[in-house]
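Complex record, four chains
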Amino acid sequence: MSNPSAETPQPLTPDEEALVRALGQVMYVLPRTIDADMVGDRQLPLTEYTALMNLSEAPERRLRMHELAALCYLSLSGMTRTIIRLETQGLVKRERCEEDARGWNAVLTDAGFARLEESWPSHLAAVRRRFLQHFDGHDLARLARAFRQAGAAETTD
Amino acid sequence: MSNPSAETPQPLTPDEEALVRALGQVMYVLPRTIDADMVGDRQLPLTEYTALMNLSEAPERRLRMHELAALCYLSLSGMTRTIIRLETQGLVKRERCEEDARGWNAVLTDAGFARLEESWPSHLAAVRRRFLQHFDGHDLARLARAFRQAGAAETTD
DNA sequence: AACCGGTGCTTGATTGGTCAAGCAAATATC
DNA sequence: GATATTTGCTTGACCAATCAAGCACCGGTT
C-alpha cells in the first residue's frame, strides 16, 4: 500500500483522532465482552454461535464449508476446526456433498437448532447491552452502510 | 406484535439487524486488514505499533507494564510477551522501577522511536483507507463518543 | 525484626486462530 | 483414456492471545 508520495501525509484532525482511538478500543474490547457474556451464559462462544446461526438460515440448514467460512469471516481451516468442535458436541454433522465428492456439507442437527434457540436471547441481550444501546438516536441504516463498506475487505494492493 | 415474554425478548428491527451484522463483519475484518497492511509495509504488527505509540506519548517515553497493558487493551501477560518481542528487536528496553523494585518500566529506545516514525504514515494510510474514509460526512465526534461508551468494558453485570 | 497478606510482573499450559503443505476428487488436455 | 492441473477440504506447524500458578518484593502487624 506504499506511502502516497508525500513523506508527511495529512495528519488526523482531532475528531478523526478521537474516532480512531475509540475504534481501537471497540475492536479489541467488543468481541471479547460479547463472547464472554455468551460463554458465561450458555457456553457457546461467539464463533460457534455465528456458525450455527448461519446454518440455521441456510436452505436445508446445510452449507458447504467454504460458504460457511465466508459467512463467518473465517479462513477455511479455521472453519474446519470450528465445525469439528461443534460436531463433537453433536450440534452439527458433516455429510459428503452429493454432486461433488470432494465437498462436505455442514448440517445443523436438531440438537444444534435447539441449542441455538437457547442461546439466542443471551446473544441478543449481549449485543443490545454492549453495542446497540450506545447508538440510540443515530441513523442506524446509514451507519450500517458505512460499516459494511469498511468491512468489505478489498484485500488488494 | 405479540407477547414480549421472558422467553422471547423483543427481536431486532431490520435496521438494528443490519447494523449488528455489519458490526460482526467489521469486528472480524478490520483488525486483520489493518494489521496486514502494516505488516506488509513495515513489518510492524498492530499490537506492537500500538505499544510503541503509547510509549512515545508518555512522559520520558516510559510506562509501567500495567499502565501500558491497559492502554493497549491487553492482559498483563500479553503485554509482557509483546514487550519481549519488541525488546529482542531493540525497539524497547526494560528498566527496573526506581521506587518499587517489583516494577518494571518499558522504555522506548531511539531505535524504537525511529521505527515508529517510519511506520506512522503506513498506519495512518491504513486507518484512513480501511476506516475513516467510509465515515465521510458523519458526525465524527458523536460517533467517537458512542464508540467509547461501547468500548468501556464494564466487565461485570 | 520476623511474619504475612497483597501487589507487580513473568511463566506454563491451553486455546483459537493463521498459513502452507498435503490428499483426494474433478476437470482439462493431449 | 491417461496424465496434468485445479479445486475442496484437512492437517501440521506456528503464533499471539488468554488464564492460572509462581516468584519477588512491599508494607503493615506483632
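Note: Helices of chain B lie at 14-42, 46-57, 65-71, 76-88, 110-130, 140-151.
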